[in-house]
Every structure is written in C-alpha cells, then in structure tokens.
Design brief:
Distance between the termini: 27 Å
Order of helices and strands: HHHHHHHHHHHHHHHHH
Strand content: under 5%
Structural class: mainly alpha
C-alpha cells in the first residue's frame, strides 16, 4: 500500500477535523441550495456552450436559480458581470467568445488559456470604446468562467475565492495569490488527496484562514481514530467503526491490525467479499501473516472459492518452506 507523505497526512487530518466539528453543519443549508442551483443550471450552461441558447436565456435562468437559492448561487456579482457584458460588448462578438471560454476545460492549463483569451478579447473591447475600463477590475472574468465551469463539473472546478487563495499562499501551497488557474489546480490536488468534495475543500480553507480549524499532529489523529474505532465497534456501531479504521489507514496504510479489524467487521455484517478484499491486501502486504492467512482460507471456503483457496494454500506453503 502507498505510503503517505507528511503534507498529505496533514491535509487529511484537516479534512477529518472538519468532518468531526460543527463547521460542516454551518454550511449544510447553503451547500444544499448551491447543489440544487447547479442541478437546475447544468443543462442550460451545456446548451449555451453548444449554441442552443443565447446569452439572454443563460442570464435569465442563472438569475432565476440565484433567486430561488436565496442569492447563494450563482452570486449576484456573476449576474452583474453578465449584465455589464451584454450592455457593452456587441453580442455577435460576445456570444461566440463566451461559448468558447465557458466550454469545460480538460486541465488547469486549458483553463488558463481560456481565461487569457477572454481577457484579451475584453482588452480589445476596452480599446474600441465598447467596454469601460472600470468594468474590468479584479478577477471578474475569472469569477464568471469559474462559475460556469463549476456548474458543469462541481466536483472538479472550484469557484474563485480570494480567501482560499490567501490561505494557500500563506501556507506555501500557492505561489501567486491571484492566479486562478493555479488555484484550480491546487484545489483539485487537495480535494483528491483528502478525499473531500470541492465545496468541502473550499470550507476547509476558509476555516483555516479564519482560525476556526486546529489540526493535531498526524500521529495524534491516527491514534485517536484507532481508539475511537475500537470504541465504536464495542458499542455495536459497525459503520462508524469501519469509517474510523479507514481514516487511520489513510494516514498509515501499513497497519495490519486496522485491516484485520475491518475484515472482522465486514464479516460480522455478512459482507464476506469485502472482508476477503481486506485480507487479500493484508497478505499481500505481509505474506507470512498466519492469522490473516487462516482467516482468508476460511472465507474462501465459506464462499466456495475453491481455486482461490488452493492457490492461497500453495502460496503460503511455498513461503514457509522457502524460509526454512
């Protein structure tokens, strides 16, 4: 099993601390409202990109979804950006460019290219006198594109967050605070390494920046999860115990005891194939683990997996004889 470096462990501890605290519930209603708005808007944005709908329809439906969500998502600022563009830039120029830019990028590099192309177009419109320089301030184009990408793929593309960027810059994760493509790349990496959703990752950064989230050392987290897992198992809270053992394993993958306990808990629930999966991983990690070997044989037999049973018998016998 893959060993985890210290940075990955730290971020996973941060995620678990977030899950165990009250902060996740503080955002629950807003997150549900955002989820509903995203679901409502996904087809509209996709069909705008494909050319089925014009900019007016896109803006109308985004405004409608925003109002229904209590103006949680999309934010009012996005509506203002679309309004400024529609009132300033000729539609025959704006719509094709915005469709190209809003097309879901395949990578942060593609996202950066799309943003630069849109920024270049807006600079030309400023030079032509169509668009006021005051309307190009800050990260408006990045905010607009990030919103459209987030609607299409909320698990991969974050919204623009200056708080999140500031947090990552302070922690040494980000080089340039205002680089939205770099921010998206880091957010994708952190989300994947933590096993967290993109919204959860956003909230974790905000909580860290606000000083509301305090992260113990990885070893402290690891031992705490093992202790709590055994307590949950003893109380008959099998699902909770499995989750806590899994947390411990994400921090220290080579923990035979946790893997064996997961196998035993799966077996107690009648999930024999899941138990077999844990034991197969365990004997792969420690080929001479006699307890795991015997338990695996008994489960193979219970499942009628004769071929696998015989292969495991020969494997273990060969190792034992080879070690003599």
């Amino acid at each position: 099993m893959e060993e985890q470096d210290g940075t990955v462990k730290w971020w996973r501890c941060a995620y678990y601390q977030y899950l165990d605290g009250s902060m996740r519930w503080d955002h629950a209603d807003d997150d549900e409202a955002r989820d509903r708005a995203i679901t409502t808007l996904q087809d509209t944005v996709k069909e705008f990109v494909e050319g089925k709908w014009n900019l007016g329809t896109l803006k109308y439906r985004m405004d409608e979804a925003s109002q229904e969500s209590g103006f949680i998502f999309p934010e009012k600022s996005v509506s203002a950006i679309l309004q400024d563009l529609a009132m300033s830039v000729p539609l025959e120029v704006l719509e094709p460019a915005l469709r190209r830019a809003a097309s879901l990028p395949g990578s942060p590099g593609e996202a950066k290219g799309a943003l630069m192309d849109l920024e270049e177009l807006m600079e030309r419109e400023v030079s032509r006198g169509h668009l006021s320089r005051s309307l190009t301030r800050g990260h408006r184009w990045a905010e607009l594109l990030a919103t459209l990408w987030h609607i299409q793929d909320p698990l991969s593309w974050p919204l623009v967050s200056m708080v999140g960027m500031r947090c990552l810059k302070r922690m040494g994760e980000m080089e340039t605070e205002g680089d939205c493509a770099e921010y998206a790349s880091i957010m994708q990496r952190l989300s994947n390494s933590m096993g967290a959703g993109m919204m959860e990752t956003e909230h974790i950064l905000t909580s860290l920046e606000d000083g509301d989230l305090h992260i113990p050392e990885a070893e402290v987290c690891y031992q705490d999860y093992l202790r709590r897992a055994e307590g949950s198992a003893a109380s008959g809270l099998t699902e909770e115990a499995l989750e806590l053992f899994e947390r411990a394993l994400t921090l220290e993958p080579r923990t035979p005891m946790a893997m064996m306990r997961k196998a035993e808990l799966y077996e107690s629930k009648g999930l024999l194939m899941a138990a077999i999966g844990e034991l197969e991983t365990l004997v792969e990690m420690d080929p001479l683990d006699l307890k795991a070997h015997r338990k695996l044989l008994s489960l193979y037999k219970a499942q009628g997996m004769i071929r696998e049973h015989n292969v495991e018998v020969r494997r273990f016998k060969a190792l034992r004889e080879g070690g003599k």
